[in-house]
Amino acid sequence: MSSLVVHFELHASEPERLADFYGRVLDWRFERYGQMDYWTIQTGEGSIGMDAPGMGINGGLARREGPPPEAGAPINGVVVVVGVDDADARYAAALEQGGAEAMAPYDMPGVGRLAYFRDPDGNVMGLISDVLSDGSDVRAEAPPED
Fold first, then answer.
1. pLDDT tens digit string along 95-111?
2. What is residue 58's three-state secondary structure?
3. What CA–CA distance (Å, rounded) separates 12 from 37?
4. Average pLDDT value for the chain
5. Pairwise CA distance, residues 131 & 69, whole Å
6. What is the pLDDT of residues 50-74, one digit of tens each?
7. I need a surface site. Which of 19, 60, 101, 140 has the fewest CB within 10 A?
8. How many Å from the N-terminal Cα to the C-terminal Cα in the chain?
9. Phi/psi at 133 (nearest 5 deg)?
10. Rounded distance, CA 86 to CA 79, Å?
């Protein structure tokens, strides 16, 4: 068996607040899992499900057991990067909804347009789009596979 990533988890001091934030910024849906301080995250159409293969993964949201990360502190964990149509628009939405800048949008030729923000609980989340700031699509520029 390969070692594919199949699930991610976010941790939050106030899970309901973070569910609301990501619902507005990324259109994710959250559902409480029983009576636990845990919510499932449905990231959208095309994600892997228990009954279907997919191109993306879903996750979970758990109540944080300790203090949130401090602003300016080094990352202590994994950063999830979410594929979006418009990295600049989603980044702006994150800031408008109470997130903070981690790294402003920038182009990485041959890769895409990237941006990183801190959510209201201090977690860093990345965004990537296939379209660069000049309107070119990195998929159209990709060299043919051998």
1. 999 999 999 999 999 99
2. strand
3. 10
4. 91
5. 31
6. 677 778 899 999 999 988 888 888 8
7. 140
8. 25
9. -65, -25
10. 19
